[in-house]
Task: inverse folding
């Protein structure tokens, strides 16, 4: 068992494209670290560099204490689970799982024992003689995992293994993989574009964008204290509501609306005083909004009115879409819906008992203590 | 895109309502449907008939006596049927006369089988290298190989013959020794393999490079080097391509006349040369030609039907998603 360390790792392709910029990442022994980011951010490239499938242009890569920059994948003591499973179609499940062991000239009896043990953990024992073509998507996924487990490597590398499964199966497999990793206590580097997978599975999550590391932290910290606009908008579903605002003393004006900010908010964010009289980007999460009629906070200064454009009833809550006349903000996420028009829109998660209807003008209560602020130029979060 | 609406009988599982349903078809399905319709079927039958008639004519002639063949058309056989096995007897007899096919048959086999194995085998190795190995100039060399497809066979015959008979020398330095390869099987094999490789490499490279990249990478992570990946992964998964290329090469080399004529010589002559001899030298022995032609067709047809089984579609099913 070992940790994986990336020191200022860079990747520049032959055509000059600089895919990864000075990536510093330390994955602790037995940690489950998730690499997340929009398409093209370089997360798969980073994973493949750890695996040895891509060359490292600059920087140092360590697995355990060994520098592995020029070491072949098979000698790095890692095992990989591919997005498309990559099972050998002409071999049985048994042979698929045992292939690496056979190549390593492990004694037959030991191969048999390890393959059967892995199959038992993954509930594949009855399928050992079948070929991949005869299995379902979830079963193939398990065979791919079995192939990795049986090698007892220092680290697991997983490249979006759940993205080809349907939604319900994905939720089930998510939990299974997380439980398996805890049981086996193997260092795992997991790549995904799905921030829900990242939040639910990772001990820590590393957010990448355009080859740059944005933030590495526990899921809760990423949610509570995103370091910049991109991370704030990327983490959380639905995305954080963002718009331009003007700060005057303790009044925050956005479009034609305003809320009053309490002193406790400034106390928690001393640097916000520096934006007095200036533009600032404000963000508030859908879960921090509520129908004013149902809200515990009766302070009128923490409310604003808005026109409801759409109400989606999910049963457990209402997703309420509304219009703001403040200028919208582009978070920089290439996978997000493009910002068009001059006015921002917002989403709130209301109680299912709320009686709001589409087309109505409604008072919305905002939990101002949980608001986020960002510098319009640097797009960094404003804290201390 | 054209669509067709089809009347479909409901599935017999007791869950659906009785009565026929309508189903919308894609263009491909619609085309296949129209070919199966009455007028479509008739057209297909007519085409089949036209293409099979000449071969059928030869078959019928091969069973007619020499006099019948030389005096009337084969279609007369329907009005005046008579079967004789005399032609086949002459052609297949083990008597050491000139009409005996057996020796030429053997020569054809000895020429064709090693040529096919060598050309497909070498091409498979080359296609793996071009697809999955990284080396300088790889893509340029592949372009050069494919460009060789455009070199007409006939252009290289004389130089190759000179190479075989005298070797290649620059001044006093010998690049290729004089091995006296004309009239030997080895010379014919070299010629067939050399002329066949550009095409074989082109076909196999396209197939091998289309294998999923993740499969090769998974093997690499599992610890397979190039050799193991080739033998345990690429070859088993390439069986459909190998089978179809093998059939193609077999037909091409079996039916070849020119290379055999130039490089094989009299005593190693294959069936094609024998057929030409029967038609040409003896001029008016075409009753024997029909029987000889039929006999020479047997083996390629057998090979074709034997290897057809290996066109396994969906061999890669289950390997990767989608």
Result:
């Amino acid at each position: 068992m070992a940790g994986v360390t990336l020191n200022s790792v860079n990747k520049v392709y032959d055509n000059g494209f600089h895919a990864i910029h000075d990536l510093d990442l330390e994955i602790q022994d037995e940690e489950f670290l998730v690499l997340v980011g929009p398409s093209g951010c370089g997360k798969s490239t980073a994973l493949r560099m750890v695996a040895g499938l891509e060359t490292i242009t600059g920087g140092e890569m360590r697995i355990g204490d060994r520098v592995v920059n020029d070491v072949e994948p098979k000698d790095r003591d890692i095992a990989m689970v591919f997005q498309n499973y990559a099972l050998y179609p002409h071999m049985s499940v048994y042979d698929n799982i045992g292939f690496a062991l056979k190549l390593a000239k492990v004694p037959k009896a030991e191969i048999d024992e390890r393959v059967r043990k892995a199959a038992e953990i993954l509930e594949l024992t009855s399928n050992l003689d079948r070929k991949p073509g005869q299995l379902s998507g979830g079963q193939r996924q398990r065979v791919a995992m079995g192939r990795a487990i049986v090698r007892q490597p220092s680290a697991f590398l997983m490249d979006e293994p759940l993205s080809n499964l349907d939604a319900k199966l994905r939720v089930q497999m998510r939990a299974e993989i997380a439980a398996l990793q805890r049981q086996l206590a193997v260092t795992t580097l997991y790549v995904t574009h799905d921030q829900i997978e990242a939040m639910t599975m990772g001990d820590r999550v590393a957010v990448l964008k355009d080859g740059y590391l944005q933030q590495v932290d526990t899921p809760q910290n990423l949610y509570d204290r995103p370091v910049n606009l991109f991370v704030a908008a990327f983490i959380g579903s639905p995305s954080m509501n963002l718009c331009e605002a003007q700060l005057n003393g303790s009044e925050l004006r956005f479009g034609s609306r305003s809320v009053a900010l309490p002193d406790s908010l400034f106390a928690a964010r001393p640097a916000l005083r520096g934006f007095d009289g200036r533009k600032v980007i404000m963000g508030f999460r859908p879960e921090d909004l509520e129908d004013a009629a149902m809200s515990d906070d009766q302070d009128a200064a923490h409310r604003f009115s808005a026109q409801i454009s759409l109400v989606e009833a999910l049963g457990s809550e209402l997703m309420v879409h509304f219009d703001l006349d403040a200028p919208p903000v582009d978070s920089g996420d290439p996978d997000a819906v493009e910002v068009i028009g001059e006015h921002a829109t917002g989403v709130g998660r209301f109680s299912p008992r709320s009686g709001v209807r589409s087309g109505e003008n409604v008072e919305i209560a905002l939990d101002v203590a949980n608001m986020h602020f960002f510098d319009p130029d640097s797009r960094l979060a404003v804290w201390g | 895109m054209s669509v067709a609406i089809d009347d479909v009988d409901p599935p017999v599982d007791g869950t659906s309502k009785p009565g026929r349903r309508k189903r919308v078809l894609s263009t491909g399905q619609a085309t296949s449907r129209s070919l199966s319709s009455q007028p479509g079927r008739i057209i297909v039958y007519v085409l089949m008939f036209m293409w099979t008639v000449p071969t059928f004519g030869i078959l019928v002639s091969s069973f007619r006596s020499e006099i019948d063949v030389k005096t009337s058309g084969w279609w007369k056989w329907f009005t005046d049927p008579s079967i004789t096995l005399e032609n086949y007897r002459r052609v297949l007899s083990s008597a050491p006369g000139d009409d005996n096919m057996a020796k030429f048959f053997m020569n054809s086999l000895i020429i064709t089988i090693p040529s096919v194995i060598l050309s497909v085998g070498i091409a498979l190795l080359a296609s793996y290298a071009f697809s999955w190995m990284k080396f300088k100039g790889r893509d340029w060399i592949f372009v050069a190989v494919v460009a060789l497809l455009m070199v007409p066979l006939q252009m290289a015959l004389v130089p190759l013959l000179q190479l075989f008979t005298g070797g290649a020398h620059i001044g006093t330095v010998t690049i290729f020794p004089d091995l006296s390869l004309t009239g030997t099987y080895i010379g014919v094999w070299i010629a067939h393999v050399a002329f066949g490789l550009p095409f074989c490499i082109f076909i196999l490279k396209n197939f091998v490079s289309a294998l999923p990249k993740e499969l090769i990478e998974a093997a690499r992570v599992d610890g397979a080097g190039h050799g193991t990946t080739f033998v345990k992964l690429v070859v088993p998964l390439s069986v459909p391509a190998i089978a179809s290329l093998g059939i193609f090469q077999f037909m091409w080399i079996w039916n070849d006349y020119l290379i055999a004529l130039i490089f094989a010589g009299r005593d190693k002559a294959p069936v094609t040369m024998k057929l030409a001899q029967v038609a040409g030298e003896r001029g008016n022995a075409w009753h024997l030609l029909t029987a000889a032609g039929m006999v020479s067709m047997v083996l390629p047809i057998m090979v074709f039907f034997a290897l057809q089984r290996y066109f396994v579609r969906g061999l890669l099913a289950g390997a990767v998603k989608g």
